[in-house]
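Title: Comparing notes on inverse folding

I've been comparing how different people in this forum approach sequence design from structure. To keep things fair, I'm posting one structure and asking everyone to reply with a full sequence. Here's the target:
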């Protein structure tokens, strides 16, 4: 009996679980560009283009390998607009009565598959090192789920950077050597860029016609869109960027959108690169003496530590995770997140490059836009939707825990042991944004005071009840309490006035 084998736009791996369960002689592969997936949030056009182009090329590879692929293009006249609709149509067409799907990375689709009027078996996505069972076993009975301990398990399990039972170099984590301020000169010219081929050019025209009005620039488009290109992009980063990745991973420079970041996360997440092959390539660079341990360990930790941990949390916490709001933040997302002018240079820079590239690196996301949203009390759901929309590597399983948990503390501390808030100090130290800003990083009150300074105290003050007992925050409250009462009142008054101007749509 033939079956349908569903492959979603972020499941483009030749050894994806559903495909491993398939019979080439009798089963049909189903792939579909559908309006539902392209619009559950209004994605950045570059993200849609990457996914559609990579889907089309992957379908061609499968056909060349002898599979019968039933592929729906977005503008096909009989496109039903949803994945389940396409499965039903293909079931009719082929006589298949059963579907094998690799479990999607989003509760929304899992529920749609469970509720579908045909049998869809969802097999676990084994592109991850930690299965659901393994993560739950690790998490069971623990008071707190800190990434660092989970990461050590992953090191042991994969053998990456291990000397027998001990971590390479004697330490598990070399972050202490990372996080250097922005360097004078960048010697990496950024991710490898690819010329448009006929498939990509056709997809760009389609995306321009259908999604051209969404936030974000479609062109220039230069992403890798197949496995061979993604491997070249990885090799380019390993050869030219990795050695300094660790040192400068938190740095930010105006006009330098990538610094030493490889920008390979979208390729891993959609299946063009296998996470272990990426880590092994980095480990080899260390073994060959081409990159230092602090860079390689930091890079590998992002993949087998953070990425796996975040996914474990998403599935463990369940479908209501994105609606959590532990700090009861209700403010609307200000228009400068959509490119309207702001006088805060750090925010303007992060948003501008997001608009251009569908990318900003993790410190821009965490310490500029995320920090600002948390300090000013923006609804975490709105913040989550923004990140899911604008970033090319944003799929809910990875984006939601990073935003709802790590960045906005809306999960009440499942992921972060304290809220990631900081005043202008940190941004000033790690970037060159402050020098040309309308506001002054070192000014604490008055017209030129950096809003991050005002809002930092406003945040701590308004959440005192929740955080005053947190041992990692005692120092902050002690500093606040030592200030003269009049000064505290001035700060809070100015912060409220600034927020009111922002809410009124003034250029702040
Ligand atoms: C993100 C995305 C987009 C934009 N379009 C499609 C599509 O048309 N067809 C498809 O199969 N997948 C698409 N995707 C990826 C899915 O939304 C993704 O599989 C789920 O969000 C789960 O991670
Ligand atoms: Fe951002 Fe404040 Fe620095 Fe301006 S002064 S760039 S608003 S941190």
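Reply #1:
Here's my take.
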């Amino acid at each position: 009996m033939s079956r349908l084998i569903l492959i979603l736009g972020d499941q483009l791996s030749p050894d994806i679980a559903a495909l491993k369960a398939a019979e080439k002689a009798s089963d049909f592969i189903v792939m579909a560009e559908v309006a539902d997936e392209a619009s559950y949030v209004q994605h950045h056009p570059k993200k849609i283009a990457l996914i559609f182009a990579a889907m089309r090329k992957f379908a061609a590879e499968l056909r060349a390998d002898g599979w019968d692929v039933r592929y729906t293009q977005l503008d096909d006249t009989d496109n039903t607009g949803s994945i389940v609709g396409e499965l039903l149509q293909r079931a009719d067409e082929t006589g298949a009565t059963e579907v094998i799907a690799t479990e999607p990375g989003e509760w929304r689709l899992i529920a749609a598959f469970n509720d579908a009027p045909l049998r869809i078996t969802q097999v676990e996505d084994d592109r991850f090192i930690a299965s659901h069972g393994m993560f739950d076993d690790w998490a069971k009975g623990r008071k707190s789920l800190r990434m660092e301990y989970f990461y050590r398990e992953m090191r042991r399990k994969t053998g990456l950077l291990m000397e027998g039972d001990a971590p390479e170099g004697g330490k598990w984590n070399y972050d202490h050597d990372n996080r250097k301020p922005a360097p004078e000169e960048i010697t990496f010219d950024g991710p490898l860029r690819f010329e448009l081929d006929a498939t990509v050019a056709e997809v760009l025209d389609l995306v321009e016609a259908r999604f051209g009005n969404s936030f974000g620039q479609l062109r220039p488009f230069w992403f890798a869109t197949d496995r061979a290109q993604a491997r070249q992009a990885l090799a380019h980063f390993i050869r030219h960027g990795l050695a300094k990745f660790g040192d400068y991973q938190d740095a930010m420079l105006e006009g330098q959108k990538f610094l030493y970041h490889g920008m390979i996360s979208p390729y891993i997440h959609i299946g063009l690169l296998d996470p272990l092959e990426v880590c092994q390539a980095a480990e080899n660079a260390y073994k060959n003496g081409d990159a230092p341990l602090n860079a390689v360990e930091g890079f590998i930790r992002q993949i087998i530590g953070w990425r796996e941990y975040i996914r474990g949390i998403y599935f463990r916490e369940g479908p209501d995770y994105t609606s959590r709001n532990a700090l009861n933040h209700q403010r609307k997302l200000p228009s400068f997140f959509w490119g309207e002018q702001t006088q805060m240079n750090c925010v303007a820079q992060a948003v501008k490059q997001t608009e251009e590239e569908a990318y900003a690196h993790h410190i821009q996301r965490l310490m500029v836009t995320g920090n600002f949203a948390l300090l000013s009390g923006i609804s975490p759901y709105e913040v989550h939707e923004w990140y899911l929309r604008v970033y090319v590597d944003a799929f809910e399983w990875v984006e939601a825990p990073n935003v709802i948990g790590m960045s906005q503390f809306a999960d009440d501390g499942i992921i972060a042991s304290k809220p990631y808030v900081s005043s202008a100090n940190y941004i000033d130290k790690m970037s060159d944004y402050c020098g040309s800003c309308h506001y002054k990083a070192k000014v604490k009150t008055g017209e030129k005071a950096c809003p991050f300074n005002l809002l930092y105290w406003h945040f701590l003050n308004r959440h005192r009840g929740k955080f005053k007992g947190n041992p990692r925050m005692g120092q902050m409250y002690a500093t606040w309490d030592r200030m003269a009462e009049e000064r505290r009142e001035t700060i809070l008054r100015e912060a409220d006035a600034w927020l009111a101007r922002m809410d009124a749509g003034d250029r702040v």
